[in-house]
Amino acid sequence: NSTIEQLFTTSRGGSMVLLAFQAGFDAANQVYQERRVRNNNPRATMPWTAVDEERFQKAVDTAKNGRVFWLGGLYRESHIDTNATTTLLRNKLSNLDEYIATLGQNITKFNAYVQTQMTALETRGETTTDLLSNLFKGYY
After folding, report:
1. Contact 114, 93 (CB under 8 A)
2. What contacts 66, CB < 8 A, 6 or more positions away?
3. Residues 55/61/63/68 CA torsion (nearest 10 deg)
4. Kindly report the CA angle at 7 between 102 and 137, in degrees rounded to 5?
5. Spatial distance between the Cα atoms of 71 and 139, rounded to a whole number of angstroms
6. Pairing with 51, which of 37, 66, 71, 78 sits 20 to 30 Å away (CA)?
7. Beta bridge partners of residue 20, listed in sequence order
8. Beta bridge partners of 18
9. CA dihedral 45, 46, 47, 50 (to 10 degrees)
């Protein structure tokens, strides 16, 4: 969820997002590894059977059918609502003291968060004039 939010808040205009999902990949990979070991290992105690081959083919068939989603419409909608998004970003920067507490005072993560919010503002042609005071509030 936060990865997608970050994509939308930091993307430049005209960008499209494509998400691809491949269901069943882990299961197919596991059956493939088992098949490889049992077929190519002369010391294997269990031979690869027709039932195993059927299970393998079913796993492969499941894994090769993925899902793809274009999120271009959501991207356009998020830029139509630029004022609300800009306000949200400014509020996040105003509450840095609260945010750093959730990170356990991790300055590296805190700095990356601030940079992400600033980039998102700049992407929208905006800036902030109170960043320094908000940073002091967060660091202190």
Report:
1. yes
2. 20, 21, 22, 23
3. -160
4. 30
5. 37
6. 66
7. 68
8. 70
9. 180
Query: Nearest 5°: phi and psi at 21?
Result: -120, 135
Taking CA atoms, 80 is separated from 2, 88, 124, 135, in Å, by 20, 14, 11, 29
**What DSSP state is assigned to residue 50?**
H
Q: How many CB atoms lie within 10 A of CB 136?
A: 11
Which sign does the torsion angle of CA 107, 112, 113, 117 carry? Answer: positive
Structure tokens at 81: 């609502």
Q: What is the pLDDT along the chain (140 residues), one digit of tens a residue?
A: 577 677 666 666 566 667 777 778 888 889 999 998 888 777 878 888 899 999 999 988 888 777 776 665 544 444 444 677 788 888 899 988 888 888 887 888 888 899 888 988 887 788 888 888 888 877 77
24's torsion region: left (phi>0), alpha (psi -120 to 50) or beta?
Answer: left
Are 71 and 17 contacting, i.e. CB atoms less than 8 angstroms apart? Answer: yes
